[in-house]
TrEMBL record:
Residue ranges of domain CheB-type methylesterase in the record: 153-346
Gene encoding the protein: cheB
UniProt name for this protein: Protein-glutamate methylesterase/protein-glutamine glutaminase
Domain Response regulatory: 4-121
Organism: Massilia litorea
Lineage, opening ranks: Bacteria, Pseudomonadati, Pseudomonadota, Betaproteobacteria, Burkholderiales
Pfam families (UniProt xref): CheB_methylest, Response_reg
Amino acid sequence: MKTKVLIVDDSALIRSVMSEIVNSQADMEVVATAPDPLVARELIKKHNPDVLTLDVEMPKMDGLDFLEKLMRLRPMPVLMVSSLTERGSEITMRALELGAVDFVTKPKISIGSGMREYTELITDKIRAAARARVKRTVASPVATTALPQLRSPLTSSEKLIIIGASTGGTEAIREFLMQMPSDCPGILIAQHMPEGFTTSFARRLDSLCKITVCEAAGNERVLPGHAYIAPGHSHLLLARSGANYMTRIEQTDPVNRHRPSVDVLFRSAASAAGKNAVGVILTGMGKDGAAGMLEMKNAGAQNFAQDEASCVVFGMPREAIAIGAAHEVAPLTALPGLVLGHLAAHGGRALRV
């Protein structure tokens, strides 16, 4: 059974290129294309597609307005197609909050290996979207129970939280970070995201959270109450400089086809922090992060994985669980409390390694 795809874009050229990409795959087909959301609305009723690709900036009806109505009235997997602009990235972040599963940048009309790589990327994302758990959008839950208090300020400076995510991860990370107290340990995050989008992602999180969230620049001291997000063009690594933890940025080759890679971050945490690290692997397709999380476990870290029921795509956590890298598996809503609970219970001066 082929995955049925509906393409919504005001550019006839983009609709044509996207259709050619999708129809080149044996397991998917374009059932229709639409130049705007009004036409798309009727085509959804007619064809009942499995996945919708939606341009973020549309005529006649704003793409965000359409998405909001769609996710409220007829939830379905939506893959946003975004321009590589600051406005495009801001709209995309909002679209993910509204329930879009994932996003890709607009294809560059070219030939050769670049287009082949883009074809592989977008078709993988369509496959993941088709399997994703999509729910009606509701207001974000607000924590009603008090989270564990850290034993002392020493806990915050000695311990670290290391997070990896992919598909569905932007919202999972937002939910996790919004529960973090202002004096929580430093947090390093690798989220699969293209260059140009991590800046908007960090800025949006910073406006919502009690902690400070920024895009990692490299050679920064990792501070309590701060989260550092891997920039979309580089790997993020944890390093040591004397008694301090530092960020490091590298533009080496992709790992598991990703840069930033979760495995790269997790392995660096295993080496630099050992038992002072707490690993968290969230929703995402593929297996990036599983091997690195096992290295963290072997180095003494405590690891948590998001459970299947709360994942948008249960790929990365499943792989980590399968190889025994996670100590605990829990719903997303429970993870902040579990992580802080572990830190509160293991807050002694453990930095001397």
